Amino acid sequence: MTTVRRNALLLAAGLVFQSGMIQLAVALGTVTIVSVTGEDSILGLGPAVFLIAGALAVGPAGRLSDRVGRMPVIRGGFVLGTTGPWVTAGGCAARSGFLVFLGLALCGAGQTIVLLSRAAAAEMFPPERRARGMSIVLFGVVSGAIWGPLVFGPMFSGKSFAAHDLVVPWLAAGAFTIAGFALSFAVRPDPREISRQYDQAVEESAASLREILRRPGVATAMIAAVASFAVMVGVMNLAGYVAVGHHHEHGDVFTIISIHIVGMYGLVLVIGDVIERLGRRNSMVIGLLVIALSNAGLAWFASIAGMSLSMFGLGLGWCLSYIAATTELVGLAGPAERGRLIGATDLLSSFAGAALALGGGVVYTGAGGSVPLAVLATGLSILAAAWVAGNAATLLPSAAADA
Fold first, then answer.
1. 201 part of a folded domain
2. Which runs of consecutive H residues, i.e. helices, occur in 200-217?
3. What CATH number has the domain bearing residue 323?
4. Does residue 305 surpass a pLDDT of 90?
5. Contact 138, 323 (CB under 8 A)
6. Which domain holds residue 338?
7. Which of 133, 146, 246, 355 has the most CB atoms in a 10 Å sphere around its CB?
8. Is the pLDDT of residue 390 over 60?
9. Computed from CA positions of residues 123, 127, 130, 133, in that sequence, does the dihedral angle turn out positive or negative?
10. Does residue 270 form part of some domain?
11. By C-alpha distance, which of 16, 74, 25, 67 is closest to 48?
12. Cα separation of 114 and 138, whole Å?
């Protein structure tokens, strides 16, 4: 097994365990806030805190990884991913809203930092195989979809979502990331060092972020990445509460989220090849349109099967558009620039996702439930698809050749 493939598989294994924490945070973040504070009007605030903290953390983390390497920063993300759930558990035990919000913030920061693994994986591969490399690592997350039904579902069997019932699941979520932290020490040499062999010509002169953003193709790819992530994560973080609002059993929330994660990552081993065949611009547009169609489905489907189908499509559309956009961004930056560019993209994505989760929560509680929320998310996805389709000339030739 080559060093690159071994590192990619280890990064994927780390995300298998990281996804245990992510599943609980996504499925029960909103419910935890309501259970501890007793205020359903602030249900969107939990996901917003989670995403804003991630946005604030990932930019500096990306820049730091350009200086010290990818793995020390990713290990720090795993540490936050353990601390956050345990602080949240303490908030549930003490009925402290402050501790719950702090814990969710730490979870969000840990998540975005560990997900820098996808860019670390991509840069280890030759330019023409980077989408494939990213796919190998992201497949680890779909493998982690088993944790919801297998571990967390039984924990809530026959129980309510009272604050004291949430302590043990949050403690268990933090334990998952310890395993990912341990695995991260086996990833060597650092992915940044491996990438130097492909980009020696640009290694000596790293441009500023402002200069990178002016390059042809960067803005278009960033819009696709930000829109696909923000719409997906905003709706995903509200889906658990929407399901409960449809009077479904609490354990069913994990089924919906697990199927959504399968949609996000189930096809990643082939999605890289699909992207290169379709072209990156086409992949971004098609993915955004699938996101739009799936969100529209949430306006009509209230059953577990219907919601699961819509959430599966939401994840699949994100997978296609986001991986295509991120692969394009990796190709537009040198080894000493990628951390800051991907970090800046993740920062914007997280802020946009937080705004949609917070605004979506207000829309859901104040404007009539899931239908207005679905209309909002669908409209934003269509606008982004139209923008990318109309700006194909600014993409790299490999992405725009099929325009």
1. no
2. 209-213
3. 1.20.1250.20
4. no
5. yes
6. 3-196+206-400
7. 133
8. yes
9. negative
10. yes
11. 25
12. 11
Average pLDDT, the chain: 82
Quick check: bond before 60 cis, omega within 30? no
Averaged pLDDT, 341-368: 79
CA distance 10 to 274: 24
Q: For residue 383, tell me if it sits in a domain.
A: yes
Q: In the block, which residue shows the tokens 């975005």?
A: 112
Residue 393 has pLDDT above 60, yes or no: no
- Within 13 Å of residue 153, how many CA atoms lie on the same side as its CB? 15
Rounded CA-CA distance 384/225 in Å is 10
Q: How confident is the model at residue 201 (pLDDT cuts 50, 70, 90)?
A: very low
pTM of the full structure: 0.72
pLDDT tops 80 at residue 335: no
* Six token digits for residue 377: 């998310």
> What does the pLDDT look like over 180-199, one tens digit per residue?
999 999 999 999 888 877 75
DSSP structure class, residue 208: P
Whose structure tokens read 């699938």?
290
Residue 69's CB is within 10 A of a number of other CB atoms, namely 18
* Core vs surface per residue 357-391: b (16+ CB within 10 A) or e: bbebbebbbeeebbeebbbbbbebbbebbebbbeb
